[in-house]
Design goal:
Strand content: 15-25%
CATH topology: Rossmann fold
Largest sheet: 8 strands, mixed
Number of domains: 1
Distance between the termini: 8 Å
Radius of gyration: 17 Å
Number of strands: 15
CATH architecture: 3-Layer(aba) Sandwich
CATH class: Alpha Beta
Amino acid sequence: MSIKALAIVLGAAFAFAGSASQAFAGKLVALSIGVSTYTQISSLPSTVNDAKAVGKLLAEFGYDVRLVRDPTSRVLRDAVDEFVQSARGADVAVLYFSGHGKQVNGETYMIPADGGSNTDGFADHLAVSAVVARLEAAGVKAKIVFVDACRNNPYVSRNGTLQGDATRNASAAERFILGPGVMMSFASAAGELSGDSNVAFSDYTQALITVLQREQRIELTELTRAARKLVVQRSAANVGNRQTPFEVSSIDDPVHFVRTGGGRVREMGRSQAERAPVSRTSGVITR
């Protein structure tokens, strides 16, 4: 049973409260990352599918999307560097990451395809808060984070014990310090697993896709509320795998996804997905 990881989305086309009828149609950029094939920890069946589907949807909502599949640590950092540079002065920036992640001392880390199994070392892991801080420094107005992830740790030994001192606080209490214009929406609570009951997509990403596909325009809190309802309903049927999405925000004004078209998806870096496909299995998979 593989453990899901991280799927992260930063962004949404938005409108201010005083002019809710008119969407804010400025510079919209996105980075969609999916990691399915890992060299030192379990592979994940749906994460590249998640990233491709989210990237395609964001393009429909007017975003200039960069897609990266199965990046190594170096490729991931290069992609983030290019993304932050492209996001300078943007009205909205979107970062989506689907792959293994871990939470330690309240911080969420993204793990690239070559992420090591030594949990006491963080050299090949990238903190979500560090990317948000760089987007803030780049002058991005709206920084919205969706984290579709297990809120535990993928580094588990064969006897079921966690490896290394760094894993001991994997489900510690949240300690969010948000700057202005930031929202983080998590697929599950701290310590919970995030499921892939249909294998093709993670449950939370599937819920987001389902809601967005039927809407031409939707406010962000309505989106997360509708997605949460779908996930809770699905997880209720999976005994022992409760999943409850939640969010934290410093955004004061309404934020909208608006289907404007005109976006595009460009692939960056090197993909291992086709060369080393992840086998598909039936039943519920926890990431």
